[in-house]
Amino acid sequence: MSPSPVEAYPLQWPLGRPRTQQPQRSRFDSGLAEARDGLLDEIRLLGGAGPVISTNVPTRRDGLPYANARTPDDRGVAVYFELRGRPMCFACDRWDSVGDNIQAIRKTIEALRGIQRWGSGDMVGQAFSGFQALPSPEERRPAHEVLDVHPLATEVEIDAAYRAKAKSAHPDAGGSEAAMRELAEARRIMKAVGNRGLRWEVDPDDRR
């Protein structure tokens, strides 16, 4: 497998994933080292490959975060790995320590392993669909291609394209949460460009 394009340090938060504004104190009773090693075990038992634990904690030579480094201001954690050839991402910044956010991801994967073991095929697919990673900035399609609109599309056209695409991209319609995040991110980018006035650097009449 080729090396992961994701950096372990500093934190590479997944595209389109909202951030927690006020992290809380958790009831987990485990240090960073225990949570980190337990998470790697859960990924291995799940069948995942090439895990990268991305945080704002400096890393050892093996790419894993130091257990007793200074606590960073941003305690978020994003974990990337491959599962049956698909890129996956689990991210958590709900808690006020890096170790607790790692532990939360560990517990989430542990629960998903139970679904994998006891659930039906449809149930397993739905459970994992929300954790498929979006492409990296270097790999993702331009926003106008995701929405299938002209690069100079108006906000009305952007919203209409988003609604049309969402009908098939929504998990309830056979799509996935990853596909919905990609659509939402594309809409956000297109509107942000328009709000800065950049969309009209090209003659608006030149929409052929």
Structural features, described:
The chain is mainly α and 208 residues long. It has two domains: 32-129, no CATH class; 143-201, Helix Hairpins. The chain is built from six helices and three strands. The chain has helices spanning 32-46, 98-118, 121-129, 143-147, 155-169, 177-195, and strands at residues 49-54, 77-83, 86-92. It has a three-stranded antiparallel beta sheet. A hairpin with a 2-residue loop joins strand 2 (77-83) and strand 3. The chain is globular and about 50 Å long.
Task: Compute the separation of the termini in Å.
Answer: 42 Å
* Number of structural domains: 2
| Sheet of most strands | 3 strands, antiparallel
In quaternary terms, these chains amount to single chain
Mean model confidence by pLDDT? 82
Low-confidence stretches: 196-208
Total helical segments: 6
- The ordered string of helix (H) and strand (E) elements is HEEEHHHHH
Amount of beta strand? 5-15%
Key words describing this protein structure:
single chain, 208 residues, globular, three-stranded antiparallel beta sheet, Helix Hairpins, 40% helix
Task: Record the SSE blueprint.
Blueprint lengths: L31 H15 L2 E6 L22 E7 L2 E7 L5 H21 L2 H9 L13 H5 L7 H15 L7 H19 L13
